[in-house]
Amino acid sequence: MILPVGRFSQLYDRRGWLWLGLFTAAVVLVVPLLRLLAPPTSAFYLSDYYVILIGKIMCYAIVALAMDLIWGYAGILSLGHGLFFALGGYAMGMYLMREIGNEGQYRSFLPDYMVFLDWKEFPWYWAGTEYFWLAVLKVILVPGVIAYVFGWFAFRSRIRGVYFSIITQALTFAFMLLFFRNATGFGGNNGFTDFKRILGFSLAHPGTRVVIFAVTGLFLILTLLLCRYIVKSKFGRVLMAIRDAESRAMFSGYNTRDYKLFVWTLSAVLCGIAGALYVPQVGIINPSEMSPANSIEIAIWVAVGGRGTLVGALVGAGIVNGAKSYLTVAWPAIWQYFLGALFVVVTLFLPHGIMGWRRGQTK
Amino acid sequence: MNGASAKLSSAPPDADLAVASAQTSPINLSHGVILYIDGVTVSFDGFRALNDLSLAIDAGELRCIIGPNGAGKTTMMDVITGKTRPDSGTVFLGQSIDLTKKTEYEIARLGVGRKFQKPSVFEQHSVYENLELAMKGPKGVWDTLFHRRDSAEEDRIHDMIKRINLAKRVAEPAGLLSHGQKQWLEIGMLLMQEPQVLLLDEPAAGMSDEETERTAELFLSLEGKHSLVVVDHDMAFVASLARKVTVLHEGSVLVEGTMDVVQNDERVIEVYLGR
User: Fold this and answer.
1) Tally of domains within chain B
2) Model pTM?
3) Would you tell me which residues 69-128 of chain A have a C-beta closer than 8 angstroms to some C-beta of chain B?
4) What domain range includes position B13?
């Protein structure tokens, strides 16, 4: 079905669209031009460090939006969203490993870790990993199918609240243990790294980097608009109704399981895509991305920014990760205290996050 | 509350709709019975909440069901609406649909609406949105994802808002309404579903005398177009409806008849007063 344009423009007011326009210009024009054209001596020069940092935070922001959709609007707290992010990352990572070709340490057509394990050929599930389009398909399908199957059973059994959260936590933990094993075939605890190229373009080249950066920025905007469309639609109102009074929604004739399954799967797919955009930028993916703490952190971004607002997810992901990367450099010994203090302050004084507090101020 | 001067219109605008939906309804009413509960037993850990309960509700009837605490009134509602599966027995909607094989949302779509004991509305949604969500129509994922409000829908919602006397609070979150207003909103939501059968669990609980009176008036005005099952233990409210009364006790029917008959029945006096 085609979205009517008139309705699409109503997703945001003029100020909202202006901000989105400015952001788009920044990611597709300003940042790439500054990176490529400004000389290193100039005050406007943007180093790779910042391009990677901002790119990384934009990936996290996509994850935060996916989290807000499922937690803020459907009331389902997932503590396993890091899994879907990592799965998307691994799907892309497998392709990037194939792009290395025989330029690895051992000059073999196999990835270094396989040579190290004395494997002679790729395991069967590596078939087709050399094709980019297949990698893209897997980035969407692997997290999507796993989330769908998991959700189908969980929602059918009417598992909710803290029980659901705990099971998602266990799920990501189980996958982490699986991926830690060398025999699983995904590089064990080192994961994938030392990528050289994507689609034949060198990943070390600034031009490649800014393109991936711009694609990430555009996908972030697309995700925001998609989420906004969903929460503004009648579907979104049903979702919030399920969050607040599920049995009333059922007795009103809504198959609440279908609704939850739909957003749950969509949310996982968005995380997977974010992971796939993340890996070529940071240059590494390993099982620590699946650690329970990582998934909990995603929930914290959304809580800090303010649940059920979408913008709050962006703000939260930006502030927490921005602060984290600044503090780890400025005060490496005590940065965690700052992070801890931020969470305490938000929990005690800003129960609805930064956006909730701002809304209270403007009232 | 400002509803004191309210009048719940006794000329419902959905009269035509009820007729129209009856024509397209899958419910077979050839024997004039809309709800037929037959030999239903439900046990929780050995306790028999319903014990071989059999009960028939005629199409268009207003039936009151009373009984002391633990008589099985709410469990009976749970079984009819698919929330609880009976250990044995069947519940038929019309002649052909076995509700014990359906899920909650399927039963709701078939035309069985339920009002909970505690008012259950979507507290963060506006009054308007509450009615919109309840309104009869396609309710699948894709239907709502691409749904567009049209003026016919808006008219129906506004008619209902007037009827439940919440016109001044259309845009307010339902959570801010008074208890009695929430009860009415929930009744309004049920009516938006255009149900064949309305199950009302203690609809007058927590209402002022005047609100209770107007609620009784509303139910009497719905009689004939919908079938209503009112569960309550407020004898005065049930008496004001003055319709056929079924008394439940320990999970089965004790007595059935007019309020006079029921009130003077020795067994009823015994279970109610514990003699």
Assistant:
1) 1
2) 0.90
3) none
4) 2-273
